[in-house]
């Protein structure tokens, strides 16, 4: 056993994950990996009958916090000879496969986590020398008969082990793209690292399987043929392996049932998990939840943001500031809940060079800040929507978008106070300044403006558009997080009056959405406000009309 070769670390980390209350069994991925090993054996044994049916080089690229490291540790713990892991795996889905015991802890695994660096690392030389030194030491200790010399390159040492001792290796390489983000690595260093991986893995008889994970696509950094042996699987472009990263609807259902069983005073709802953490789309059309955030919310018994590092605000603005003029209008549309067409090319994404609109949005998709679906990008969920709203509220460089966001708190206050003059003033300000939405022609465009003028309301309300209520669908309904706060129903009208909008809210009984079930007290006890907003599209002065009416006063407990 060593640091990289058949070490204990992967098993210990997997053991910790397995013991968590909200652990999700993803071991079925092994049913896709084990055949890649067995096909090679069968090809030798059966004169090529299965040759070429499966690549032994697999690269998985996913956004951060989508379980890549958890998966890498599990894979290393299953295959690796270093520790007997049957106690954990016997209880998991992989145990049902006929080949389960044949491969459990029967392989040499070299697991390298590339975001681990020497102390006070300031150069690529010290970074790569640490990796080479630790690997060489592990091999020398494990295979003294291989006659490995200090001057041997890692691939030379591994070739000796294969030739003299007949051993092969499974490589589990995590955070492969770490070096490409580091200031201490020059462009020539990054090219050398790509060559290092190529020399280590490509066309090597000692490679039994290479499983590599990262955020950025290989194509971005392998301009030639250095890493073309890998079959790369990204979330936006490839269907295979999609279900193993992120949580599916069914998995979140199971976790929520577990949560209700163990939590005495649950504060998280199933709908809340959907609103906060759902919204990512795979190439196969399946919806996925951010796994880290779901587990965080259930463990803490509280919905909220579970993104880490210096903060998503800083990271999101990093991308936007690269070309504010090109992207600010699109950001405005997305914050208003409108998908935006974009040409997303995952290979174009890098945190170092972002110049064009498409490069910026490509990076934001790759890093998980945006969802990509059928040629359109969008903000996937409330967790990210809150962060985008924070950007536009704090950054003067966003121009009119920033000023409009700052005014949105005043719009909510005016609505609650029934101050229709201020409401009208702010709506017209939004209409005249928000360039992507100036061409009003229908309620859809008016609805986009509504999302903007009520942006601050996202802090206090779950806002649903075209929600089922009463005997129809209401344009906007604001569900307060604090159930004693005012509930708000908004109906929009083009070429009609605000009074017409209020009349529709009443006639179609939209307020029933906030009333309790028969014989029970209402869940929402605050006032219910009906808000009618009208716009005459042929009016050259772009005037709006607003009306607020209290449908129900506060219910005192």
For this structure, what is the CATH homologous superfamily of the largest domain? P-loop containing nucleotide triphosphate hydrolases
Structural class: alpha/beta
- Poorly predicted regions are 43-53, 347-351
CATH architecture of the largest domain: 3-Layer(aba) Sandwich
User: What is the count of DSSP helices, taking H or I runs of 4+ residues?
Assistant: 20
Percent helix range = 40-55%
CATH class call of the largest domain: Alpha Beta
The number of strands is 15
Strand order of the largest sheet: 2-3-4-1-5
Mean pLDDT: 86
CATH topology of the largest domain, by name, is Rossmann fold
Count of structural domains: 4
Give a short account of the largest sheet: 5 strands, parallel
- Rg for CA atoms: 28 Å
Shape: elongated
- The fraction of residues assigned to DSSP E strands is 5-15%
End-to-end Cα distance, whole Å, is 66 Å
